[in-house]
Amino acid sequence: MQFPLVSRSGRIRKLVEEHRDSDISRVELMNLPGGAESFELAAKFCYGINFEITPLNVAQLCCVSDYLEMTEEFSKDNLHLHAEQYLESIVYKNLEMCVEVLQQCENLLPHANELNIVSRCIDAVASKACAEQIALSFSRLEYSSSGRLHTIRQAKCEGDWWIEDLSVIRIDLYQRVITAMKCRGVRPESIGASLVNYAQKVLTKKVDLVSTGHQKLVVETIISLLPVERLAVPISFLFELLRNAVMLDCTIACRLDLERRIGSQLDIATLDDLLIPSFRHGCETLFDVDMVYRILVNFSQQDDGEYDMDGVSIFESDSPHSPSQSALLKVSKLVDDYLAEIALDVNLKLSKFIAIAEALPAHARTIHDGLYRAIDIYLKTHKGILDADKKRLCKLIDFQKVSQEAGAHAALNERLPLQSVVQVLYFEQLRLRNALCCSHTDGNHKPVHHQSWRISSGALSAAMSPRDNYASLRRENRELKLELTRLRMRLNDLEKEHVCMKRDMAKSHSHKFMSSFSKKIAKLRFFRHSSSRGSSSPSRQSYRADSKVIERTCASIE
């Protein structure tokens, strides 16, 4: 019975030779990889019992044949050779089979690692995934009508069917697979989709004391595997990871990394994303305001410093490296909505409310209606607030930037301090006076409009960033130049009319025509005379205003 095993297994042969002189009837094999099931397969091979090598048992056969030394050194055409040939010719050429083998290797460590079965399967998976993406990209190339080669836009993660397959392997092996894929050049969007799928499979399972530690490991590993590219994963997934990281007490480095990533794309977040419950013991507030504050600081810091690069003017709003004004506007509206939500919390301290409101730069808000609404809700919820604290809150509002509806509401709001109400009434009076001037000025409404606009712009310039101040001056210049162009066109029309009247006068010498001609000439002379004096001509005023703005623009640039 022992002869076939002895002839094919070098390990068993050595054990038998060592105990030849003793009456030992049993040989003990310690730490046999795969246990009794693997030994049964090896024994079947030795005794000529046919069985099929599959992806589910080939890793066992490799490990047990190596352990029993069933190699060509002791017998030709041995088990180890058959298992290796199956791996090389079949498994490593098929991504699904490689994943199945990896799953079987989980119970065969460290032997599977020592035989490089795991590393070879991982390399095969990464290579196949990368090759499929390259092939898909080439298949979507086509020539346009102009003869130029372009790529047809493809659906997100199209062809990444392997994403679902990878969700079944253990987290340590999954980490090695994703790392290999990054090195091979697999698209960041595909990596991100795989991470989202894996996290959803693991984190939605029922939680107990044992699985809590496993989920913590999964969250920390997935955070470390996140692609560096922006928008590679949905921002809602980043917020979900952050909630789990806080709840599972993951490392501070993981949480800070997530906060930095969220801050870099905060402009696409929603209010529900920001409403993160407080998981810390002893925290009085309903939501984690401190975490949102850190995210806003990350957004503001990348807004101020990340895009300031050598050779790029920081004043050019259309520069690819300059901060997006639209992103600032979106985040400011998001913050105002968030303030309105947390203002309902009676335990929210005034200092934290103000810190959130001031986390963005002053020029981020072009309209202060949302901020006014949030402050009004806070005052309504915290009725016992001191007058000094009310003044601190209302100093956050620039009443020049509230709409007419919000200003009317603020003027009758008894919760506001008297100083704020006076400011509202004063600015509403200025707005009404400017509106009346514009409506009652006949023909010269444009210069009045520009003048009032410049006053408003100048009053707000202190609260604007240098980039926005520069952009407003450029817009002001363009408007004034357009006004000069309109005046020149009006003058050209009058000159054409003069030529036509001279032509008509040559044809007709009637008294009626001469009378009308004299009146038109008088008007023309008056226009030119007043234009040459520069006393009350709108074109001269506009030209001088244009010159002043140009001088001021040049001075600001210098």
TrEMBL record:
What is the protein name for this chain? NPH3 domain-containing protein
Report which residue ranges the record marks as coiled coil: 470-504
Q: Alphabetically, which GO biological process terms does the record hold?
A: protein ubiquitination
Pathway per its UniProt entry is: Protein modification; protein ubiquitination
Protein family per UniProt: Belongs to the NPH3 family.
- The UniProt record lists the NPH3 domain at 160-431
Q: Does the keyword S-adenosyl-L-methionine apply?
A: no
Record key words, sorted? Coiled coil, Ubl conjugation pathway
